[in-house]
Amino acid sequence: MTICSLMRAGRVAAFACLASALAATATPARAALGDIATARPTASAASDSNATHYLPGGAVRVTQTIDAFGTRLREYVATGSGEVFAYTWQGPSAPNLDILLGRYAGEYQSGAVALHLAGRDGLHAARVDTPSVVVESGGLMRSYVGRAWLPSALPAGITEGDLR
Q1: Are 126 and 115 in contact (CB under 8 A)?
Q2: For 30-85, what is the HEC assignment?
Q3: In angstroms, rounded to a whole number, what is the distance separating the alpha carbons of residues 142 and 160?
Q4: Given this model, what pLDDT does residue 68 score?
């Protein structure tokens, strides 16, 4: 084996380890991207772990939860259709992307593998941009950030910059 193929094998093993770690992490999400969101009660002012607010114009409801691991997860729902069109996260652990992405998980995984095989995935950050779903993730141990959204489902007047 050449040094180049050994390095590639090591990168593939590291990628597989990361993917399995992400799949094992639980998430408080109740609906995947593209699904209709379930109704949730508005949290009281005393609780900052669960909160609901609306983006200016009222076209988007943002529900924030903090999971058992301390990761803050925001679910973006189009108020007109009730469709979940985006998630963002920040915290000590990454969410389970298979659950968040739902039916888009396979497309994301294929895009991530293609990015990796092309050598364009970063050590601490990556952006997988497919026709249906965009996923940005990054961070260091115990400090993960990311967002996933459906570009075609963004409500009028909402841009990817609004997803924080």
Answers
A1: yes
A2: CCCCCCECCCCCCCCCCCCCCEEEECCCCCEEEEEEECCCCCEEEEEEECCCCEEE
A3: 25
A4: 87
